[in-house]
Amino acid sequence: MHPVPDTVRIQGGDLRAYAAGQITVDLSICHNPYGPSPRAIEAGMRLLAESPGALAPPPYGCEEPYLDAYADRLGVPATELAAGRGVTEFLIVLARLLRGRRPAVITPDYTHTLRLFSYGAQYVPGQAVLDTDIGRLTRLRRAMASQSVVVLSNPCNPTGQCLPPGEIISICTDFPQSLMILDEEYVDLHGPGLTTVGADVDNLVVLRSTGKSYGIVGTRAGVMWTRSKELLSLVRMEMQDPWRLSLLDAVMAAAALQDEQWLEGTRNALHRDAARLEDHLRDAFGPRARLQGPDHPLHYRFVHLPNPRPVVEHLSEHGVSVRSFGDYGGHIPGIRFAAPSTDEQLATLVHALNTLPEKRAA
Ligand SMILES: Cc1ncc(COP(=O)(O)O)c(C=O)c1O
User: Fold this and answer.
1) pLDDT of 362 strictly over 60
2) Which residues are CB-neighbours of 295 under 8 A, at least 6 positions away?
3) Residues whose beta carbon lies within 6 Å of some atom of ligand 1
4) Domains assigned to the chain
5) Among residues 321, 299, 303, which one has the least CA distance to residue 312?
6) Residues 154, 182: contact at Cβ < 8 Å?
7) Which of 146, 159, 248, 265 gives a 20 to 30 Å CA spacing to 102?
8) Angle of the 309-317 helix axis to the 343-354 helix axis, nearest 10
9) For the whole model, what pTM was predicted?
10) Which residues, other chains included, contact 236 with Cβ-Cβ below 8 Å and sequence gap of 6+?
11) Which neighbouring-strand residues pair with 206?
């Protein structure tokens, strides 16, 4: 038997540490598995077929059409946006730029965010492992009251909690001296009308990406929105190399943004998949599965387990990979399951869950 990799340490979707062919159902990454967006594929193919020469010179200015498409989509002027290589690049740049202001992170959060801002403060859930929306909002309020920069994802990776945009904006209004950096990587997959982009506040920075929602994570493109002219120009200065985005990525990602109907249809399918997943996780883990409930329709679910490793091992022996977390560095211990999107994948997972030895799920 191939040794089970320490999945606490590797990123979702990275199966390189498993034996070749061992994993048949990858539930460790939370992209839209119904993608890639058909319009993105069409646009990429068209570019390659009709204007391959466009790939030859450096793609000067190729980010403008992407910014325009995103601005259109979000209903804000393109002048309030900066383009980068996914939310990741903005997190890297902001972690460097804001170092002197000791940003705080509301935990748990995305692994890379926790790593990049590890020099700052953390607002962790209390003794209870189950975080609540009220608890997360209270920590956000406390952090905004006493820190000059606060970072969080909404919806939260890994728990799937989604704080109401109105509450987030009113916290920004209440604490204008503090800057909030809000990572909305998954907001489009949670539901429509949940973005805070365009809010009438100057102390909010929102990070968005086309990768996960449209199933094109391999294209590296995203935007940062803020009304803070000062921060926007600082970030732009940090990111001013003339061929920032890949032309092919920008073309595909801009086209994906036109695929609103497709996004809506796949979002509904994802929510249905997530509800099915949740039923099976409840059966498998009983009260030990501290799931977030029906108010959190996102396509992934977090199960709190003090020691996730035996479950992860059992699942991988049955061909299923998941993302697990230990109790350190701002994480909470447990497993994040992305929802299987086919009956076959679901059957493989359910078989693995049904054969979980009693003691392993404890
Ligand atoms: C919460 C969150 N933010 C940001 C990212 C990075 O995404 P990208 O750089 O593809 O936009 C991820 C990826 O897993 C994530 O989960």
Assistant:
1) no
2) none
3) 86-88, 110, 153, 157, 183, 185, 209, 211, 217, 222
4) 25-36+261-357 (3.90.1150.10), 38-258 (3.40.640.10)
5) 321
6) yes
7) 159
8) 130
9) 0.95
10) 82
11) 182, 225
